Amino acid sequence: MKHHICLVGGQILPLYMGIVESNPDTIHFFYTNETENNVKILKSFFKEKKTESYKCSESNYTLFLRELNDLLSKISNNENVDFNITGGTKIMALAAYDMIRERKSTAYYYNQDLSYYEVPSFKLKNVNNSIKIVDFIRLSNNSISSSTSILDYSTADFMMAKSIFNFSNTNSKQFNQIQKYFKNLFNDSDEIPIKGDEEVNDNLFVTWDRNLLEVNDCSSLLLEVTGNNIKDLFFKAGWWELVTAAAVKDWSLQKEIVMNVVFPFKGDTSESKNEIDILINTGRKLIFVECKSGIINQADLNKMKAVREIYGGRIAKSLLVSKFKPTDRILEKCSELDIEIFYYYDKTTRGTNSLSSIHKKLDEINKKSSI
Q1: Domain 2-129 belongs to what architecture?
Q2: Whole-model pTM?
């Protein structure tokens, strides 16, 4: 029989990972008034295991040591006991450490990157397990209202996105005219009909239906794309998100990618609370990616920070992927909000960054600890 004693603090992720790594038969949670709800969240993940909970004396060393001793006296010396001392108060950790030495047990202290120290040897080790996106979100006591796996997009979708991307580069003037025209014509991109034929100006025409879109001038065909996601990819700027996702999916450290992630209001999945374009999971960290092919404002950045903190925790990171280099003001604000930046084109120098170089940026992000 293996017992795992968990000192519950404000951060749930290292406690969850400690239980997964230990794989005990029985989990003993020591909690305070402030952390009682975290016990409920943790228990929901381990319904197949026996769990016991103890409200403890978090600020009195002697009393907490006695509470630990009362528990351990009921456990046979032949049974295995380990501790997770990442959470709880400092008093709780000190008392647990003394008990660990007395009993010659093992304890674990987890860092933000989910590496951990094995106590009392203080050897630094890495976890063997990984966490799925849905579990990351559940650990923050939240849920996902809707999302799309990157695997759900077809080859035709990726080809269409690439064609639109190339058109935006080679025919940037016409592309910008089209974007401005449709923005003025329709207050919301959802209002754009499934089928239409618009004269943007005397020398630029856009024709589309469910499966085909053409852009022509008076003398030639400028763009032709086919597929069943015309509206989302062309008119809703989904092309930039998919072009970014195509580059990200080849990153060696990603284990899971979902797109168009919508988070609901508490208790009401019918109202969208926040959304993110791309969510990358390394198995130990979430990276929230916002894709912008046009104007970036401070509200976009504030939303990115809020989403990361609410749903990803301290270890999560944010990445803004912009087609164009942001203004100095936006760059400064990103630095303040701990938002990483990758951009494709710098108008000042007329230089471009290969989209595949986003892997280097992701490597840098993965090595960083969050604030």
Answers
A1: 3-Layer(aba) Sandwich (3.40)
A2: 0.90
Q: What is the mean pLDDT of residues 94-102?
A: 94
Q: What is the 3-state secondary structure (H, E, C) of the chain?
A: CEEEEEECCCCCHHHHHHHHHHCCCEEEEEECHHHHHHHHHHHHHCCCCEEEEEECCCCCHHHHHHHHHHHHCCCCCCCEEEEECCCCCHHHHHHHHHHHHHHCCEEEEECCCCEEEEECCCEEEECCCCCCHHHHHHHCCCCCCEEEEHHHCCHHHHHHHHHHHHHHHHCHHHHHHHHHHHHHHCCCHHHCCCCEEEEEECCEEEEECCCEEEEECCCCEEEEEECCCHHHHHHCCHHHHHHHHHHHCCCCCCCEEEEEEEEEECCEEEEEEEEEEEEEECCCCEEEEEEECCCCCHHHHHHHHHHHHHHCCCCCEEEEEEEECCCHHHHHHHHHCCEEEEEEEECCCCEECCHHHHHHHHHHHHHCCCC
Domain assignments of the chain as residue spans, ordered by start: 2-129, 130-371
Average pLDDT over residues 274-300: 94
CA 39 – CA 28 distance, rounded (Å):
10
pLDDT above 90 (res 273) = no
The yes/no answer on whether domain 130-371 falls in CATH 3.40.1190.20 is no
